[in-house]
Write a structure and sequence with these properties.
Number of strands of chain A: 16
Radius of gyration of chain A: 18 Å
CATH class of the largest domain in chain A: Alpha Beta
Structural class of chain A: alpha/beta
Helix content of chain A: 25-40%
Largest interface: A-B, 64 and 64 residues
Low-confidence stretches of chain A: none
Largest sheet of chain A: 12 strands, mixed
Oligomer: homodimer
CATH superfamily of the largest domain in chain A: Stage V sporulation protein AD
CATH topology of the largest domain in chain A: Peroxisomal Thiolase, Chain A, domain 1
Order of helices and strands of chain A: EEHEHEHEHEHEEEHEHEHHEHEEHEE
Distance between the termini of chain A: 31 Å
Shape of chain A: globular
CATH architecture of the largest domain in chain A: 3-Layer(aba) Sandwich
Mean pLDDT of chain A: 96
Number of domains of chain A: 2
Strand content of chain A: 15-25%
Chain lengths: 342, 342
């Protein structure tokens, strides 16, 4: 049963273990710096399907299937799936998991989804409601551009602040069972508030999301009494180049110097010098793939002992932008510890 | 800490109290059988705003505000808001709650949202992570028709199986604090699986959702060992006239006779003889309004002692329907007991 440290952070009474991850990446991601870490890379953006939405759905289905085989947990022992994505009505998750035969809790947190699903999953396990929870999310460059921006066929020029939606699906198996002396575990959960500082430019989501990241990070440090130095790495989801700089600067004003410890998944998944992604990666799969493919490996090898993982989400819709609204944002942070032997 | 009865149902160790509800309804709902039970009825579908989406957003904001004043819980003591809606990217919830200053967990369960949010909220409280959780959802006939079906201006004729999306917002305050001998409480949570029996007609969502309702209901009775007779009322979310009949018939095949105990919110919120809603009401606000305005009153007056509340959701999108997909569905059930004195 979790111990509440403050209004935003809870400390799990028993650690919740991350026993397995799975990742399926698009071809551009497969050409990037993390290429060797993905479970599989799809070369065709349609993934053999007739639409990008169906391709994304298939990625969810296959990531979930891979997660089950890698974790070795029988389906009958998975108590909940917590999943969501960017598509209208979260159809990639709902269609991708419709044959799972497991109770499903659908979530919407835009690109913070992996953070939200792991937060809920961790609390369900620590609360005694589940032994194993699967957390899954996805995004697809083509389905996201089509839905949120312009038809790809137009060849619209991207602004320098724009980010590139990551194609892929990531899945995490959380479990009650593990060994605190040698496994990877979630210890704290800091749930974000919706923050809106009035940014309206849907091509500058890093700037829109940075204040939410600052709010959640500051809350986490205040609530736990930890300093940024406690962590080997503080990792935001998809602030990109623009948002990361804002986050660092604003954190300094809050009295926390994160510079030496901080990076963003949007700057890790692509090589900005070679891959023409402008301000970096974004999308639910951005933080999901970086975590499931790369961070999990570093935690497993003991190269990272303490990770603060904080996916970030911009809660806009095309309709809200067309109606002149701002971009409310959110960030959910998880403190993850590894006692794996390096 | 919850006790797991089986793969789908948990029994809460300590009851979670429903200490307050709030409801804002549209004008058509205000002319229906429940007219006298809503906290307020809006006469103008735009609610003084410039778009239906902004009107729905305002309903969320006002329902939340009303919930806080009715419950008497200070904002600083609300640990989480769990909320979602039907609009793309759940913007009614996200914009409506952006100034709440409370951690937010966004959910997507289509019209099952009130069931999902109350399920998560109940587990967060029983798990020791929260003292108070606010659960909120909304829908709006005009924004839903615009997004899911046809522009209202076309005056498209509706099919006999079609349902009428309820305009409104409902909010529930869950709390750890209460008296089991005289209050209203959630005792069990049965979380639904995604069920898809191949229905493709987006104008017949009752038929699409009925199998999900049957699956969750059967699981609930199997898991708890209870028979339908245990409940004063078994209440599905928005199966409407078509889905309700299918549900009754299929439940009989499963070995459970629910006929005398069963009703559907979609048949309660409107008068089908007088209000021209065809198969009944639907939308997130359908089950939310019926519960928050009417059922809560019956529980409070002790007229209902045991309620099985099961909002139902059709997990389609316009894109999935246009691409020839079926309609996967889900239903989440909560067992609610009242020891209020009649």
């Amino acid at each position: 049963m979790g111990k509440r440290l403050s209004s935003q952070t809870i400390k799990l009474d028993s650690p919740v273990y991350i026993i397995s991850t799975a990742s399926i990446a698009g071809s551009k991601e497969g050409e990037g710096p993390l290429s060797s870490f993905f479970d599989s890379v799809i070369q065709d953006p349609l993934f053999g399907e007739k639409s990008w939405e169906k391709a994304e759905t298939k990625m969810v289905r296959e990531a979930y299937s891979k997660l089950i085989s890698k974790s070795g947990i029988p389906v009958s022992n998975i108590n909940y799936i917590v999943a969501g994505d960017l598509l209208n009505q979260c159809t990639a998750s709902n269609f991708g998991l419709k044959d799972s035969d497991v109770p499903v809790l659908g979530v919407y947190g835009a690109c913070s989804t992996m953070g939200e699903s792991m937060s809920i999953g961790a609390m369900l396990i620590d609360g005694g409601f589940a032994e194993n929870v699967a957390c899954i999310t996805s995004s697809h460059f083509c389905s996201a551009e089509k839905q949120f921006r312009y038809p790809l066929e137009l060849g619209t020029q991207r602004t320098p602040n724009a980010q590139w939606t990551v194609t892929g699906a990531g899945a995490v198996m959380l479990s009650k069972a593990g060994d605190p002396t040698k496994d990877i575990m979630i210890t704290h959960v800091t749930t974000g508030k919706i923050i809106d500082k009035g940014i309206k430019d849907a091509n500058n989501m890093g700037a829109a999301m940075a204040p939410a990241a600052v709010d959640t990070l500051s809350a986490h440090f205040r609530d736990t009494g930890r300093q940024p130095d406690f962590y080997d790495l503080i990792l935001s989801g998809d602030l990109g180049y623009v948002g990361k700089n804002i986050c660092e600067e604003f954190m300094e004003k809050e009295g926390f110097d994160i510079k030496g410890k901080y990076n963003d998944c949007g700057l890790i998944i692509f090589d900005r010098d070679k891959q023409d992604v402008h301000a970096g990666g974004s999308g639910c799969a951005c933080s999901a793939l970086v975590f499931c493919a790369y961070m999990y490996k570093l935690l497993k090898e003991g190269q990272i002992k303490n990770l603060l993982f904080m996916p970030t989400g911009a809660l806009l819709s095309p309709t809200s932008s067309q109606q002149g609204e701002t971009i409310p944002s959110i960030a959910h942070a998880l403190s993850i510890a590894s006692n794996c032997i390096s």
